[in-house]
Structures are given as structure tokens and as C-alpha cells.
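C-alpha cells please, single chain.
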Amino acid sequence: MNQEVLYRFSHDSESEEAQLVVPTLERDKILKEQHDSPNAVHYGSDGTYQRIAKRYFWIGMRKFITNYVKNCLDCARFKASNKKPAELLQTPVQAQRFETIAIDLFGPLPESKNKKKWILIVEDVATRWVELFALTNASARECATVLMEEIFLRFGLPRRVISDNGTQFVSAVMQQMCYLLKIHQSFIPVYHPQANPVERKKP
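Here you go.
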């Protein structure tokens, strides 16, 4: 206990940091910060639990988090469906920088020394500026994290994101992030991949 605040050291965790023991009245607040905020992008119950368990603890925490995520209206509304949406056939000219971005994945490539084997390609449609990011895994979570930290925080939020129907881009993680940030997703039909500006640049 430190200044009347109770901490716990977990024997099951590799981390040496103490976990703050959260009283009942503060648990909903922790969930809102770690699950509902734009930076959290509404991860599933396991992802949310991992985020919270790094810093906090209370008895029955996993069950509490699972029930919270299960009853989240945004998660239920934007859960990825089995249908693949198709919308965009042509890419209109954009006037403002980073108003519309196009994204795509390239790989897998031979693994680098840093265990990277995928490339996330991001292009600003207006200026044709292209940025490349090496990824360890082609997961929805890793793509969303790169977009948030490397694109949105540097260039501002776009109005639209163009992509193909890859599982990473139609995932619940990506849809929820775009919904929370009020970004419109435009998906390229499978039969017309050239409508994506990034696709035209790939070999």
C-alpha cells in the first residue's frame, strides 16, 4: 500500500510493474478509457483485458471485462459481417492534402532481421505522397495502430480511407476505428482492384 492506494504484484506476469487494485466504483471508468476511447479502438475482450491487466487488477476482472465488451453497443453495431462491401469504381480527384488516403498490404516478403515481412502502403490521393511501413504481422490491429500513430497523428484525420476487401480492412477493429473517428471507408470491388490508387503502384 502506498499513500492509501493498494498495489498488487502478479506472480503470473513477466512485468515487474505493480498493478493498481481498482475499487468497484472506478471500474467502469477504467473500461471507458481502455475500451471506448479512440486510441483503444474497441478491442475485443481479450485485447481489452491485456491492456488493462498491465496496470490494473480486481477480483473477477476478466469476467467483468468480457461482459462489458459483450454489451458494448458500438461493438455490436459494427461487428464485421461475412458480406464484403463493394462501393468505389472510380477515384475522384481530391483537393485537400490527406483528405482521402488509399491503403494496401504487400507481402509476405522474406523476413527481415527485425522479423518484418509485410509492407503497409499508404498514399495521399491528392498529392500522390506515399509512405511505407514494415509490419511483423498483417493483422487488423497492427494496421490500425500504424494508421493511428503514423498517419492520423502526423497528418490529421482523413475524411475517407480507400482499400480493397482484405480481411484486415473489413475487420471489426478497422470499422470501429473509422466509425469513432468519423472516417468513411470505401471498398474496392474484387473485380476492379485498379480503382485503388495504391494497387496501380504495386508491381
